[in-house]
From TrEMBL:
It catalyses: L-threonyl-[protein] + ATP = O-phospho-L-threonyl-[protein] + ADP + H(+); L-seryl-[protein] + ATP = O-phospho-L-seryl-[protein] + ADP + H(+). It comes from Citrus sinensis (Sweet orange). Keywords: Glycoprotein, Membrane, Signal, Transmembrane, Transmembrane helix. The keyword Glycoprotein applies. Pfam families: GUB_WAK_bind (PF13947), WAK_assoc (PF14380). It is a single-pass membrane protein. It is an enzyme of class 2 (transferase). The lineage of its organism: Eukaryota, Viridiplantae, Streptophyta, Embryophyta, Tracheophyta. Coiled coil: none annotated. The keyword Membrane applies. It is found in: Membrane. InterPro entries: WAK_assoc_C (IPR032872), WAK_GUB (IPR025287). Residues 38-103 form the Wall-associated receptor kinase galacturonan-binding domain. This is non-specific serine/threonine protein kinase.
Length: 265
């Protein structure tokens, strides 16, 4: 066979073209744009934000999982919106066990109005991506209660602090034996989850409830696992068009990781 015919064949020419293209890409140091876009970011409080979370206006939506978009407040804290009108400060993200500690922004200790804001608490509605972690409890707040309360309920009365108005507010846990009776003395209610210490410290103490609500609660999230991709040198993301996890690598996006020949079940 004439070697010149092989070298001039269309298939050989195409293969040479692809090889040259890859070599040129390597030599030029061109890095995949999605890999570059999904570098870890921060709002300013020192927390590194990466998949499944992403910061709006700092990171592309494909760098995170749908429903995990964060914003940054003017104090440099990442903020997660769990319902349409309630913001939660992201206190800490623990990536290895898929948990995030959040607190109601209205209860933030950095809020100068914090002593008043418990009267504006709303029911927490969790989207499908999140669920309460174990060892959480529901605190119940009762509003517009009768001004002359039975003596047995006075221990649940919350101090108004600097709040204006005469609204009487009660706070107790959902398993409190007085809850049913107290509910009949008040016109409105709201429920907020709180993290409970293993020894139950603060349970049954109305000051403890208020402090526990300010400290927030722990959520577990449901999203694709990023570990294998990250350990292979990639950056995790999500393709909203195909609704599939992506591992963004320096050369190009891959399905699970950046390591050639590696098998992942």
């Amino acid at each position: 066979m004439d070697l010149s015919q092989i070298s001039d064949s269309p298939l050989t020419s195409f293969c040479m073209f692809i090889l040259c293209l890859l070599l040129a890409r390597t030599v030029s140091g061109e890095i995949d744009r999605q890999y570059l876009a999904c570098v870890t970011k921060t709002c300013g409080d020192g927390q590194n934000i990466s998949f499944p979370f992403y910061i709006e206006n700092q990171q592309e939506a494909y760098c995170g999982y749908p429903g995990f978009n964060l914003s940054c407040n003017d104090k440099g804290n990442p903020v997660l919106k769990l319902s349409s009108d309630t913001n939660y400060i992201v206190e800490k993200i623990v990536y290895h066990n898929h948990s995030v500690h959040v607190s109601n922004a209205a209860f933030s200790e950095t809020n100068s109005d914090a002593a008043c804001t418990f009267t504006r608490i709303k029911n927490v509605s969790l989207p499908a991506e999140f669920q309460l972690a174990p060892d959480q409890k529901q605190a119940v707040f009762l509003y517009n209660c009768n001004s002359s309360l039975p003596e047995k309920l006075l221990r649940h009365k919350l101090l108004a602090g600097n709040c204006s108005g005469d609204d009487t507010v009660l706070g107790m846990f959902e398993d409190d034996s007085d809850l049913d009776y107290a509910s009949k003395q008040c016109k409105e209610s709201a429920v907020a989850p709180v993290a409970v210490d293993m020894n139950g410290e603060g349970m049954g103490d109305h000051i403890g409830i208020e402090e526990m609500v300010r400290k927030g609660f722990l959520l577990k999230w449901r999203a694709s696992d990023c570990r294998v991709c990250k350990e292979s040198g990639g950056r995790c993301g999500f393709d909203a068009d195909t609704f599939h996890f992506q591992c963004y690598c320096p050369d190009r996006p891959h399905a699970k990781h950046c390591t050639p020949g590696m098998y992942v079940s």
